[in-house]
Amino acid sequence: MATVVIVGDVGGCADRLAAVLPALAEDPEITVIQAGDLVDRGPDSPGVLKLVAERLREAPGRWIQLIGNHEAPYAGIGEPFWPEPLDEADAARLRDWWLRDRMRVAAAVRTAQGEELLVTHAGLTVRAWRELGEPVTAGTTAELLNTRPEALLADLGGPLWAEAGTDLYHGWLTETVFPPFGQVHGHDSIVDFGTRRWRCGDRLRHRTTVDWAARHTTTVIKRMPFIGVDPRHGRDGAPEWSPLYLRDATVLV
Q1: Are residues 68 and 97 in contact, defined by beta-carbon separation less than 8 angstroms?
Q2: Model confidence over 21-55: pLDDT tens digits?
Q3: What CA–CA distance (Å, rounded) separates 2 from 180?
Q4: Per residue in 191-231, pLDDT tens?
Q5: Counting Cβ atoms within 10 Å, is residue 172 exposed (0-12), middle (13-18) or buried (19+)?
Q6: Distances (CA, A) of 35 to 32, 43, 89
Q7: CA-CA 20 to 30 A from 33: which of 5, 78, 184, 228?
């Protein structure tokens, strides 16, 4: 089995992505899933897109690109919302990736322990899961999401927009149904990594462990892990962070 590496939100911080790419590119046993939000906020969105374009060209089978809410308007999902739009060449690049299926909504991974994890930008809420027909595996769920259900993708509580604490975790915690699989997501975090303050209540905090150096959180809800990988780079980039490594894992979808 190979290693699956999940890279959280990049947010226009090309230097932060460039710092981790050599190690990811040189190992042929690594497959990367990037969880969306490549662009906006940071200083060099064009540089980020150039780096990803190189990986998609040189090793297309080893780089899985997911769509985030910041890419969504360029794919025709919802209205533009960021005050500093991309130039036409970069906007066209994102549209091309979407139209050619080089950017997708979801991926699914089987870990070394045999658990399935769904990977999306913002996570799949219990309400969105029900709208998909309550699929029982991460693989089936990823396949359904990759049919691009338009209303669900545009929904502010959907897999491109859901807030981690209020929409995603709270819903699965308070509903009577058990999560059928674990999840990995970017987009939002229940902690502020810079100040080390919590952005959620005690019910979630007591279920969560934090890797402060890597900028990951793991919240266990009814025995299933919900792993947040958004490093919250902001405008200048996090001083320290790391992708999520899943060793001896398999990409299912």
Answers
A1: no
A2: 999 999 999 999 999 999 999 999 999 999 999 99
A3: 24
A4: 999 999 999 999 999 999 999 999 999 999 999 999 999 99
A5: buried
A6: 10, 19, 22
A7: 78
Sign of CA dihedral 71, 74, 76, 81: positive
Identity at 157, one-letter amino acid code: G
Q: Are 193 and 233 in contact (CB under 8 A)?
A: no
Residue 96 CB neighbour total at 10 angstroms: 13
3-state secondary structure of 105: coil
Nearest to 38 by CA among 62, 70, 61, 16: 70
Quick one: tokens of 75?
């794919």
Residue 235: count other Cβ atoms within 10 Å of its Cβ: 10
Q: How long is the chain?
A: 253
Written as six digits, the tokens of 174 are 């308070």
Residue burial 27-62, b: 16+ Cβ < 10 Å; e: rest:
eeebbbbbbbbbbbbbebbebbbebbbebbeeeeeb
Q: Which residue has the tokens 């669900």?
A: 152
Pairing between strand 103-104 and 107-110?
Answer: unpaired
What is the Cα 11 distance to its own chain's centre? Answer: 12
Give the sign of the dihedral formed by CA 117, CA 122, CA 124, CA 125: positive
Q: CA–CA separation, 73 vs 95, rounded Å?
A: 9
Domains in the chain, CATH or no CATH each: 2-251 (3.60.21.10)
What letter represents residue 1's amino acid? M
Residue 1 has pLDDT above 70, yes or no: no
Q: To 5 degrees, how large is the angle CA 180–CA 183–CA 188? A: 140
The pLDDT of residue 58 is 95
